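User: My collaborator sent over this chain with a note saying "see what the structure looks like." That's all I know about it. Can you take a look?
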Amino acid sequence: MYSRILTFIAITLFSSQLFAAECPSLLKFAKRKLNSQEVVNLCTEYAGKTVLFVNTASYCGFTPQFKGLEALYAEYKDKGLVVLGFPSHDFNQEDNDEGKTAELCNLTYGVKFPMFEPISVRGDDADPLYRMLAKKSGTTPKWNFYKYLMNKNGEIVDSYSSLTKPTDEDFIADIVKALK
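Assistant: Without extra context I'll predict from the sequence alone. Here is the result:
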């Protein structure tokens, strides 16, 4: 019995070290879900998936993109796509009340993709995740609904301006290609 326990511990430690080595650097973060105390280990949840990172805002001309992002997520989630939303007040268009942000996402736009705590996405106060996205892509968000696409190997495919709609054919083609 004692040897089985030691074997189990050794296998668990080895597999967790192996998993940590396989986790893309962009996912080596834990983030709190929007309007919740639940913290998500991005690596555990999303390693091996194609990830679309989007900085969002509740009171922006691009806010209706939530609907298109949700449609993308619904269509491609079973093929390995996850959309991760990060509200940001960097452009002065996000509510200070997370409850109101969550309500807008859920009730107004039917968002089911993961939304996380508000963060800063640019400048000196940028969250480490967004600093890394900027470093790997060579660009920072210029406005709300700026998008970064990461393939399942953890490599940035491209970044997309706020003007790129979730229905844009070239954007969707990049997602489909990244899913392969």
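A starting point for your reply to your collaborator: The two ends are 44 Å apart (CA to CA).
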